[in-house]
């Protein structure tokens, strides 16, 4: 473990780094550590480590043994690990269904997972058409206010949440987003025209978990004229894929 450099009255960012270093100090060989051990490992004073550790305890990220007063990792980390594992499971379970969607439509297929006010591209399968959409590489995070997947996700949220998502936008852009969301709710699927890449159209459906909470969206993207001409068929194909992925995950779509 590297010692933490810098003064103990550092910035908020330094505090976050130090809190992370406290968590990373634990491993399989040392699942519990006392205050002095942590201070030695991190190169910080006991007082500084105590403040960090107690804050992490209050968040459930650390626990303190009431008898020995040593620290161990908290169960809240298991919840976070479950979120990560769930995302990995979705990608694994969805892959074959996304490939089938690409094969049946010829368009590029995306699996987008919600991350707060954005959606991250968890998987992309390139279309087979000569003119195909490659606008969002895997790992890219896109605001929910941009793209068909974001619109599909927003369409499942209540109006207060949608208003919160557009609050930082100028009035015209915010109005455009809300109009797209309203259209998606009325139409039953989200459709966007050139808002990520000029000349590209996309259609998306939200993916809901077993509690009815939105976890992401599946979309197809391609040449705008082609997508517009086949929007009903594409929407039906994306809907089937969403249902298949939900069933593979053991979720019932609400």
From TrEMBL:
What Pfam families would the database entry show?
A: HTH_IclR, IclR_C
- Per UniProt, which keywords does this protein have? DNA-binding, Glycerol metabolism, Transcription, Transcription regulation
Q: For this chain's UniProt record, which GO biological process terms are given?
A: glycerol metabolic process; negative regulation of DNA-templated transcription
Task: Enumerate the spans annotated as IclR-ED domain.
Answer: 76-251
Which GO terms of the molecular function aspect are on file? DNA binding; DNA-binding transcription factor activity
Checking Gene3D superfamilies in the record gives: 3.30.450.40, Winged helix-like DNA-binding domain superfamily/Winged helix DNA-binding domain
Question: Secretion signal: which residues?
Answer: none
Question: Which top-rank group of organisms is this from?
Answer: Bacteria
Stretches assigned to the HTH iclR-type domain: 13-75
Q: Key word Transcription present in the record? A: yes
Q: What does this protein do?
A: May be an activator protein for the gylABX operon.
Task: Spell out the PANTHER family in the cross-references.
Answer: HELIX-TURN-HELIX TRANSCRIPTIONAL REGULATOR, ICLR FAMILY, HTH-TYPE TRANSCRIPTIONAL REPRESSOR ALLR
Q: What is this protein called?
A: Glycerol operon regulatory protein
């Amino acid at each position: 473990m590297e010692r933490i450099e810098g003064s103990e009255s550092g910035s908020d960012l330094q505090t976050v780094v130090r809190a992370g270093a406290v968590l990373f100090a634990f491993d399989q060989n040392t699942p519990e550590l006392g205050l002095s051990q942590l201070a030695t490992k991190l190169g910080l004073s006991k007082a500084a480590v105590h403040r960090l550790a107690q804050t992490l305890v209050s968040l459930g990220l650390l626990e303190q043994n009431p008898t020995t007063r040593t620290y161990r990792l908290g169960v809240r980390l298991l919840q976070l690990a479950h979120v990560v594992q769930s995302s990995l499971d979705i990608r694994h379970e969805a892959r074959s269904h996304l490939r089938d969607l690409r094969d049946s439509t010829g368009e590029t297929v995306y699996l987008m997972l919600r991350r707060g006010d954005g959606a991250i591209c968890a998987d992309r399968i390139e279309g087979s058409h000569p003119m195909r959409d490659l606008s969002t590489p895997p790992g890219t995070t896109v605001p929910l206010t941009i793209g068909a997947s974001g619109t599909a996700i927003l369409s499942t949220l209540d109006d207060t949440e949608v208003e919160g998502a557009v609050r930082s936008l100028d009035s015209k852009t915010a109005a455009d987003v809300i109009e797209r969301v309203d259209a998606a709710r009325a139409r039953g699927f989200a459709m966007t025209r050139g808002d990520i890449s000029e000349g590209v159209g996309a259609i998306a459906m939200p993916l809901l978990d077993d509690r009815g909470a939105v976890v992401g969206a599946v979309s197809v993207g391609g040449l705008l004229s082609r997508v517009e001409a086949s929007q009903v068929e594409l929407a039906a194909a994306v809907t089937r894929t969403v249902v298949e992925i939900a069933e593979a995950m053991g979720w019932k779509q609400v």
